Amino acid sequence: MRALKRSKFIGLFVATVAAAGLVPLAAGTADAAPVAAAAATGSCPAAGTVTQWWHSGHDGVDIANSRGTAIYATGAGTVIASGPASGYGQWIRIRHDDGTITEYGHMYERLVSVNQRVTAGQHIARMGSEGDSSGNHLHLRTYASASASRGMNPVDYLSARGVGLPCTPGGGGETPGTNFSTWGTSVRVRQDARLNAAVVRTLTGPTPVYVECQKRGDSVTAEGYTNDAWSYIPALGGYITNIYIDHPAAWLPGVREC
Ligand SMILES: [Zn+2]
């Protein structure tokens, strides 16, 4: 059975009915995408692959993606730095309302200026490889306070705000938006669109996903289909053959090429 995923439409229906006062908002969402259990205040800083985690020799996390990928404020606050910075090429620092600081580096374009007020999830920069960097990525640092000399682990900082890495921007940041669903069982997520690429995860069953882009890779024959298109799913950190994306088209409509 390869029925189209309809959660987006059902969600709209529920919102419309709820607005009309007919049913409580929580009713009737059995087929909708899962909703985060805890209220979240944070937003995903950028889609991409975490290429380096926080450790003793690395004061931050690196999130890599293509040049120009949007970088978002992880929370509401005030911009306290935006400009050239040694090592970073360019940086942005935001002081959040809880006194914590987030710091973003290596972008090729900044979209906010000092003293500007930003909201959680606001698009503040475009990813680049400026300064001391060997590829397009966001270097994100998080500080417990303005006086902290070393950043705290961004994984802890973000998880306290309801965001896990890697993450998918959108929907306010706390709940990744999804545009497709996988089908089948034991579906492998691979590091690249190749059958010999490492398996980064295996999906046990149908899973709502956000497909960011698709590209041609190894031709795969399974479940009666042959297809060489693969979907990139940033939240899972890899690619799935389009055979296991629940849509009748081999090349997904409305999804750009990676
Ligand atoms: Zn880094």
Care to describe what's here?
This protein has 258 residues and is mostly beta strands. Among the domains are: 49-159, Glucose Permease (Domain IIA) (Distorted Sandwich), CATH 2.70.70.10; 180-244. Helices cover 7% and strands 33% of the residues. It contains 2 helices and 17 strands. It has helices spanning 7-19, 154-159; strands at 49-52, 61-64, 70-72, 77-85, 89-96, 101-105, 109-110, 117-118, 123-126, 137-143, 180-181, 187-190, 199-203, 208-209, 213-222, 225-233, 238-241. It has a 7-stranded antiparallel sheet. It has a 3-stranded antiparallel sheet with strand order 3-9-7, with no helix packed on it. A hairpin with a 4-residue loop joins strand 5 and strand 6 (101-105). The radius of gyration is 20 Å and the shape is elongated. It starts with 6 loop residues before the first helix and ends in a 17-residue tail after the last strand. Mean pLDDT is 82; it is low at 1-40 and 171-176. The structure holds zinc ion.
